[in-house]
Amino acid sequence: MGVDLEPVGRLCESHVSNRTSLVMLLQETQDKYGYLPREVLKQITREIDVPLARLYGLATFYRSFTLTPRGKHELCVCTGTACHVRGAPTVLQHLQRRLGVSPGETTEDGLFTLVTVNCLGACALGPLLVVDGKYHGKITVGEADELLSSLAEAAQQNPQ
Amino acid sequence: MAQITADSINITVDGELAEAQVGETVLTVCRRMGKDIPTLCHHEGVEPYAACRVCLVEVTAGARQELVPSCQYPVSDGLVIQTDSQAVRDARRVVLELLLARCPKSDVVVDLARRYGVTETPYPTDDPDETCILCGLCVRVCEDVLGVGAIGFADRGIDREVGVPFDEASEVCIGCGACVAVCPTGHVCSIDDGLVRRMETWKTELELEECEVCGRPFATVKQLDHIRGLLPEHVPLNRICPVCRRSQAVQRLSEACSIVVDNLGATAGQDGIENLKSL
Amino acid sequence: MIAPAAKNIASAGQLDQLRQRLRVDAERYKVNIAVCGGTGCQAYDCQAVIDAFDQELARRDLKDTVRLRCTGCHGFCERGPLAVISPSGLFYQQIKTEDVPEIVDKTIIGGEVIERLLYREPITKDRIREESEVPFYKHQQRIVFGANGIIEPTNIDDYIAVGGYQALAKVVGALSAQEVIDIVLRSGLRGRGGGGFAAGRKWEITRDQGGDTKYVICNADEGDPGAYMDRSILEGNPHSVLEGMLIGAYAIGAAEGYIYVRAEYPLAVRNIGVAVAQAEEAALLGENILGTGFNFKVRISRGAGAFVCGEETALIASVEGRLGTPSAKPPFPAQRGLFGMPTNINNVETWANVPQIISRGADWFAGTGTPKSKGTKVFSLVGKINNTGLVEVPMGITLREVVFDIGGGIPKGRKFKAVQTGGPSGGLIPESMLDLPIDFDELTGVGAMMGSGGMIVMDEDTCMVDIARYFMNFLREESCGKCTPCREGIKNMLHILTRICQGAGNEDDIGRLEALADGIGAAALCALGGTAPNPVLSSLKYFRDEYLAHVKEKRCPAGVCTALITLSIDAAKCKGCGRCVKVCPTDAISGGVKKAPAKIDQAKCISCRACFETCPFDAVTIV
Questions:
Q1: What does the pLDDT read at residue C404?
Q2: What percent of chain C has pLDDT over 90?
Q3: What is the CATH number of the domain that holds C581?
């Protein structure tokens, strides 16, 4: 499970020359890798003089960072207040039960990552489910089920 | 750290007028006055953090009355402070109830809570063996004071913890034990076992070096290397344990004294020579 | 997209010339189509509508006479995708791509109105032609949002054409720093981010600190759930924010600024990035701005997912690349802020008000509002409300006007219960206080707060204990964990509330909640912790009977708390469609086929409410 460490040098160089913060460096690293691989964080500590503990602290404090790879599809349930009063908890609980994962986790087959977000500001569409960046407004449990089934089916027919 | 300047100001502590210096914290002044203010996340050698909230005192500035962390709050002219008001005691009690629920076995927490009349807590305990109160002193001394940064905070909120990254042995820990020394609850601990120092809390083991004089293991190899790196090149680093260093220093001092005594012998009286010798 | 003409503007005179030229250029367009491109409408796939317009206009060779713009948010998110067609001002809503050829054919070429696409007033059933006549817009007063629906946010020319950067020219050309501060002070502008501190006073304190290096920061970390005004301003009119920051920087003596923007707002991040780049090209950011020797540059810092970073000291820590944990004040950021230097932080909406105040004068601004809260405030009106969207109203308007006149009341004929304002730091405002005028101090007085402007409407089907639990759960996730009372206290408040929602609470729990709330409020390190108990305290204050029903009768009056409800199917209403059978996770529902009514097996039912949410015929009832 080798991770290509080659881009790390360039990321660190740009961080130093543009005087960006460590948070920005980690954001760019995650943009590059899709997550923050342990080896990459260690490589960063070798490239720039920063303790691994500080990088690890940032990576676990801020919710947009993840230390594990995401699933093929990301299901994001908005849990903002407007979505909450319009039934988001029912949808979220249903997805949790059906996928057998909690928010932030990925299914064993690597197909789905379930996440929540505090508010996307698309409150007119609540409850809101975002599947791979596409917004599905006024979602019902039944519709969520159908979406899940069609994605799972597509994955079965077209395994990578 | 508080900078002492020549600017003197007047404050009132528990009705008593007191003099303070601009830049001092409320805690410094109050402790000088002999006030009993508890602290958990505070240490003289580390920057104030204001996190544990047991050092809260009540200040009145203008019309506003509020609870502030004395360890960090700077004094200002005319500041009125109450270190033991009802509001202060109530707030400390809530904080201690919460800490007691978190760390029911920590003697430091149990004793302090008892002083505020808290012998049991209304809140449930998640882990009865928990002893870390998250004061952060270990992390702060490691990164801010020593510049090592072997340990850090991880996660946030109720899941916040101190530890080594990825929960695996640290490559950079020098095993100096500063974290052990500053930990107020004994959560951070280490054990020296032969030529190995085990930083138990950080899952890290380090090789110990033997004293050049007495041969006892006394410091980790990495710690000595770290100090070597901090010293100017021309200053030699003696790999000698503190005990031997002290006796060597005494030795040197008495040698120096005897030279002084010899030189002074002619002019100083007998009493003076005896005094010098007793050093 | 049309490349901007604004490049290297060297003086106020050149800016003026450019503006006049742009206005003349604009006259060649006979028709302007402004399609809303805010995040809400993007979620309705407005991009497909825009693409359809683009293709249709090209196909008919109309691109030289018809200008198509993808603008920022128009506010009426409930009705997207929407478009305004000028000069007639015709307002079409819920447009589908299939409608586009017809719109071009009939309306743009033929000048006809397509009745079907007009907004229909739900009570009178009248079709309304113009945006300004729609009740949702009619009661609003749009100062900050004025240009949102007109300009293309990704083209600086549009902003300049409507008078943008004129206030900056006035300031750097003719006013001293003190004069600028005096104007802002006199306008009575207060920070729109929550605290309501006088903006001019804050600027003055920062300016009066020693040292040469100072910073201004735009707080765009709009974290309150249900609040998205700041995002819409950044998306729809980013230059108004930059211009406000430029003016503030001039008055304070800062040469560098940061915009800290929430990462969950990708469109806002993109648009403000484009705006900064275009303002740099136009030499409105950089060195020697408008030839006056004033220098100012802006950097964008993307948030990384932490609500607490809306707190000033945590925000600064985050910009510096550290953990977003707050530190005790004093020192205040105005004294020692970013990189240890005096720093002035205002939020997006506050900055966006500044150019207007400079252009139109302090007295004009102070002419709107209440004695202590001047100007307008943008709210996001969301939740159980007919007209979800962003509304900009004069301070002092009553909640009743906002909820019923603008918001159109509660859907499905349900009964209004409360409005939640101020997010997790705020509180609930019950029906008895609907006539409360909205202003900073009035809201604080009743235990709520203005916050950044989220207004979540709740109806009789909303459980107030559940709402308190929701906010404590939110804060448990978002507490940084630094100080004891916030970290441990919120966890325990959540624990108690969860117990109550599960029917395992007792009357002592209410007293325990109150004691904890007081302790956390008094002892926490920062504003997040200090205000964290507000949702609990205000629900206890106004809806104590709901708590009592949970603990004494083990009953959830709103029918929300799953452990306290029983679901059943009304055979008379059930059409046997089978949808509930499919969604039931425990196979507790039988029947529901071939029009035979479905039935719930109570032994298997886990009261998850999935059937209730799914049933299109309201046949599932909760007791």
A1: 96
A2: 87
A3: 3.30.70.20
